[in-house]
Amino acid sequence: MLIMKTESSCVRQHIIDTAKPIILGKGYAAVGLSEILSAADVPKGSFYHYFKSKDAFGEALLEHYFDEYLAQLDALMAEDGTPAAERLMRYWQSWGHHQLCDNKESKCLVVKLGGEVCDLSEAMRETLNRGTDAIIHRLAGCIEAGRDDGSLTDIDDARATAETLYQMWLGATLLSKIRRDDVPLAAALQATRQLLQLA
């Protein structure tokens, strides 16, 4: 029984992993279950064995995305002897790099799906809300660490600053997609330095 459960979990994860680049390319509503299952080489009739609905699949996809994203964020911001301000800027520079590269896997799923699914699925909207809140919480923690180590001064509200920065970078990423250039991301990097008084 345990072997069957493990195998089922592996197939479930395989479907999620296969679907992620497809959805990053086309969006959520434009991708049918048959396309995902065909790409995953999973029998079409077995989808509901792994997910109760397409919305449940969407939730699982987003939860997996945020789990991976937060682990990468924790690694970028981990105490490594460098000032917190440097670790925070490392994150924004990494964001800009990933959004400009050709690898679909590195693109921001929040930007891709945020506007699309929030009106379609309350459960997916809640998952996005929880995930983005966790990101902002970690950014605020790094800003607080910067206040403690003296690398980020004169920031009264770490949470508000983290939220402002995250919102700015989401908007800049969306504009970069619309304009197909890196100008909004470069502007966001400069504005971030100014807001953190690192310019």
Task: Describe what is shown at a glance.
The chain has 199 residues and is mainly α. It contains nine helices and no strands.
Q: Based on CA inertia axes, which overall geometry fits?
A: elongated
Number of strands: 0
Largest sheet: none
* CATH level-1 class: Mainly Alpha
Remind me, CATH topology?
Tetracycline Repressor, domain 2
**Discrete helix count:** 9
Describe this structure in words.
The chain has one domain (53-195): Tetracycline Repressor, domain 2 (Orthogonal Bundle). It has helices at 2-26, 33-40, 47-50, 54-77, 84-100, 109-117, 122-149, 158-179, 183-195. The radius of gyration is 19 Å and the shape is elongated. It has nine helices and no strands. With 199 residues, it is mainly alpha-helical. The longest helix is centred in the C-terminal third of the chain and has 28 residues, at 122-149. Helix 1 (2-26) packs across helix 2, helix 5 (84-100) packs antiparallel against helix 9 (183-195) and helix 7 crosses helix 8.
Descriptive key words:
mainly alpha, 9 helices, 75% helix, 199 residues, Tetracycline Repressor, domain 2
Strand and helix map with partners:
Elements: H1 2-26, H2 33-40, H3 47-50, H4 54-77, H5 84-100, H6 109-117, H7 122-149, H8 158-179, H9 183-195
Helix pairs in contact: 1-2, 1-4, 4-7, 5-7, 5-9, 7-8, 8-9
